[in-house]
Each structure stands twice: as structure tokens, then as C-alpha cells.
Amino acid sequence: MASSVGDIVDAFLKPVTKEGLEAISSRLLAQFETGLAKEKHDGEVKMLITYVHNLPSGEENGDFLALDLGGSNFRVLKITLDSENRDISQVDSKFSISEELKKSDQDRLFGFIAESLNNFKKENGITSKLPLGFTFSFPVNQTSLTAGTLIHWTKDFKAANCEGNDVVKMLRDASDARKFPDTDIVALVNDTTGTQMAVGYSDQDCHVGVILGTGTNACYTERLDAVTKFNGDRSQHDKVIINTEWGAFGDKGSLKDVITEFDKAFDSQPEVENGGSQIYEKMISGKYLGEIVRHAMLKLINGGVLFGGKSSDVLKKFEGFKSSYLSDIEKGECMDVLKNKCGLDPVTEQDCEYVTQICRAVSTRAARLAAAGIVTIVRKMGREKKCTVAVDGSLYKLHPEFRFRMRAAINEMLPCNGVIIKESRDGSGRGAALVAAVAKQ
């Protein structure tokens, strides 16, 4: 059991040395193979078929609609593609999804989406039936580009009568019940796929899309002959984008040597609705990093190492240490965070140094684990010498060091430097419209 700051830092970082990452990568690759083999399997990652076969060519033109549902906000967008100037313009509206709505039912949630879309059309004078791409960032078992059943909710969504039902049909039913004009839904898209498509519009070497934000997931372009479980028409295509749902890696023990007592402590709390699942995601994504740090701090407080053994009411509460604080602290704002946001007093320079070390260790582990996932995908495709990876998400964009630590770990595992990381601009919005545009060609 880790009892000193050094012990705690080691507990986070020793499993993610280069050798550790190689072992993790081997296990993840085995899970990929299991998931691609057949529809029903006992593997940890689902490897869902997206039915998206091609990247944008850059020749797409016209107006398209996009819906983006994946968290606390929902967006409606109109995207205009201009192939002559390789230009994308957009207008969009954002709507807040309340906690009550997340936990309501099918009619209320999808009714809200349908009403928001209808209002957006009215406000922007859209009277024609534009092709629409729907980014739905939850695990979906797709059977075609326009049909897919919700496997289970994530991200605190609990709306009743949705799991096991077709996402596109639920939206159409809600729209029909309210007598709204029919919508031409041509693509159901995961946010990772949208992320890949958004960069793929200008880079044909973009074969991977990664989300590193509140949650984490990845997709990539796979050879169709490697997807044994694909039951569609193989004569028209030779590749397909696979939504890995890699956040569930570790759910059956593949990461047991990486999990610390602090991961277990936060994951066993009653407030964590998906305890024991999404293990890889919980070690990487922004939703959970603050809780991991908080539990490490509480251990040191109880041992008299931090703050003279005295905690605060804020720090004792679930999510009392926000994940955004890791970024603030690594920017040098530790004293302000601990005193003014966590209600701790007194705070010494030594306290700040110790907390900074813990934050650095937790975010470094996250970045290195993400790197191992990316390298696994690149190797799976055999594209070590040339591959663009599109990345989106608040953790990657806002944490001051995450991207550099992830890049360093990728370089350790793939010294040839063939992997190019590009930040995706609005993959879940623009990307969905681009999938719709490709589908209509």
C-alpha cells in the first residue's frame, strides 16, 4: 500500500514504463482481434462497425445538417461545403441537457432533440429537406449507416425505454408525434468517426480518430477482410471504420496490474454509477482524473503528510477536487487551487510540491495509456511509417502538458516518427455533416 508521496507516484507511473506500455498494447491488440471476429464475444472492447467506408474526397458540395448529442450539451448545425475553395462554414445552436432530461424517458429526450432541430430550421429559414448526420456518442450496435440500437447509456444518461431501441427510429418517432416535417437522416455517427472525418477532409492519410475529453474512445480504418463479423455487402468496399469503444478495455482484468488503490477507492463510491466498468476510460479521461487525485490526497492527509493531517469539507466531498484543477496546478496555480477552491488552510510550499507531483503522475499515466492505445491501432493497420491521427476533446486541448507527454510516449514506442497528430476541429459537428455528404455522393 502506497503511504508516501514517492510510493504513490510510483504506483501510478511504474506500470506505464515503455515495457509496461508494450505489454498493455499487446493485450489491447488481442482484445481488438476478439472484437472483430464475431458479433457476440466475451472480449472487453466491442469493435463496432460504423458502416462508414470512405473519407471525404474534398469534392463534396452543398448544405447539410448535423445533430450532436454526447454530453451535457446538444447542438444543431448547418454546414456548408464549398469544394472549390476547400471551405467549410457553419451556423449552430447549443442547447443544455439538464440532469432531469438525462434521466427522463425516450419521448421526452428525443422529443427535446426533435423540437430543437425544428426550431433551428425555423430560425435559420431552412425549408428544404437537407441531408442530416446524427452524432450520437454512446455505444450503438449499427446494422447500417442509418440504423443502430443503443447498447447502453454512458456519461450519466439514464433515459428510460431507450436501450435496445433504434436511435434513428426514436428520433423519427418523436418528430412524427409532434407532426414536424420529415428529416432526411442519412448517417448515424459516433463522435470518434466524426473526428476522423473532419481531419480526413483535408488529409487523406487520416486513418484514426481519438476523443480525449470527458470520456475517451477511438476509431480507425480497418481492412474489411479483417472484420470477420461484417455481414454486409463486401463487393462494394474494401475497408470500414471501426468504433473500438476502447474505454471498456480492462473491464475483465486486462489492466489489473495498472489499477491502484486510488482507482479502486473512487470507483467503489456509490456516486459512481458505472462502478467496475470503463476501466481504461477512467484512467485516461477528464471526468475521472480529479477523483483519482482526491483519493491520493486523502490518503496522505490521513497519514499526516499533507496539510498537517487536516482536510476540508470540500475535499471530503465526491468530485470536490475537479479534474480541471490538474491543469491549473500544472500551470503553477497550486496555492490558489488548494486555498481558494479546495478550502484548505494552512497550505505550505511543501504541500504544493507534493500535490503537484501527484497531479503530474496521474495526468502522465493518462497520457501514456492513451499513447499505448494509439500505437496499438497504428500497428494493427500496419501504418507505422505514415499515419495521421485526428484528436479532439477538452483534456487534450486544455491540459498544458497532456499532448506533449502523449507524443513522447508514442515516440518511445514508435521511434520512426511516422505518426502525425492533428487536432480535429469540431469533429462531432462538422464530422457528422461530412459523413452525410459522403453518403449522399
TrEMBL record:
GO terms for cellular component: cytosol; mitochondrion. Pathway: Carbohydrate metabolism; hexose metabolism; Carbohydrate degradation; glycolysis; D-glyceraldehyde 3-phosphate and glycerone phosphate from D-glucose: step 1/4. SUPFAM superfamilies: Actin-like ATPase domain. Residues 208-438 form the Hexokinase C-terminal domain. It catalyses: D-glucose + ATP = D-glucose 6-phosphate + ADP + H(+); a D-hexose + ATP = a D-hexose 6-phosphate + ADP + H(+); D-fructose + ATP = D-fructose 6-phosphate + ADP + H(+). CDD domains: ASKHA_NBD_HK_meta (cd24019). Its EC number is 2.7.1.-. It comes from the Eukaryota. Residues 16-201 form the Hexokinase N-terminal domain. Keywords: ATP-binding, Glycolysis, Kinase, Nucleotide-binding, Transferase. It is an enzyme of class 2 (transferase). Belongs to the hexokinase family. This is Phosphotransferase. It comes from Amphimedon queenslandica (Sponge). The gene is 100639704.
